Amino acid sequence: MKRREFIEKLRSELSRLPQEEIEAAVEYYEEYFDDAGRENEKEVLQQLGSPKKVAAQIKSEYAMKLFDEEEKPTVKKGISAVWYVILGICSAPVSIPLAIALGVLAIAILITLAACVIALFAGIAGCVLGAIAFIIIGFMAIPVSVSTAMIFIGAGAGALGFMAAMGVLLFLGVRAGVNALVKAARKRNERKRIRKMLDKSEQKKWRYSDEDTAGDPDEDQEAAEPADTDKGSADQEAAEKEEEKDE
User: Fold this and answer.
1) How confident is the prediction along the chain (247 residues), in pLDDT tens digits per residue?
2) Class of residue 18 by CB neighbours under 10 A (exposed 0-12, middle 13-18, buried 19+)
């Protein structure tokens, strides 16, 4: 395996991490190879191991970082949690209707935002059609009055350009908002997945520690075998000495 192949496989293994984390990891190992030099490339590859192993270490470090950032306990959070519990107990009879009302309100806000966006696009489309109509009327008015025709054509062209710019800005704004919502949802799902992965790793650690403390019966048996052989050899030597005395 060569350096370029190692970097490409590492990037592929880290594809589920955020792009800035991938670039930081790749940049780190690129500098690591550069510092070692081309003559030591094989030694560096042997020292690092497989890209999958390196990627697993990077993922675990990123997971721990996210977990620490999310789970930092503070006094303010603790007090807020206590107040939330008290409010939840006091408002138990009305919690379900309140949750339904909040859900309906959230849906209504989303529908209102979507309606506003659609209305803006419809208004821009109407203005574009009006600008095109002005340009057509201007060309039709050329035989009657050239100055009037130029006014209509200029007004239509200016309105058409302005509406085109507004449409592009509106499209970019909607796309940025949708991307932000999708990114937030992905980040939330990623945190849930990382939390599950950390829980599973903790369970494995506890299981392995229990197995280590329990001991291996095969090892105990192997340790007992030398003692048995030593005892047998001692008995044989004692019997030989007794035979020599009898003679």
Assistant:
1) 788 888 888 888 888 788 888 888 888 888 888 888 888 888 888 888 888 888 888 877 777 776 665 555 554 545 555 554 555 545 445 556 766 777 788 899 889 988 998 998 898 888 889 989 988 988 888 888 888 889 888 988 998 888 888 888 888 988 888 888 888 878 777 777 776 666 665 555 545 444 444 444 444 444 444 444 444 555 556 556 555 555 4
2) middle
Ramachandran angles phi, psi of 5, nearest 5°: -65, -40
Burial of 112 (0-12, 13-18, 19+ CB in 10 A): exposed
**Do 13 and 51 meet the contact criterion of CB atoms below 8 Å apart?**
yes
Nearest Cα residue to 25 out of 10, 3, 9: 10
Give residue 243's identity as a one-letter amino acid code.
Answer: E
Per-residue CA distances from 137 to 6, 24, 149 (Å): 66, 59, 7
| Two structure tokens written together for 224 | 């007992």
Provide the residue ranges of all domains of the chain, joining segments of one domain with +.
Answer: 3-71, 76-207
DSSP at 49: -
Q: State pTM to two decimals.
A: 0.39
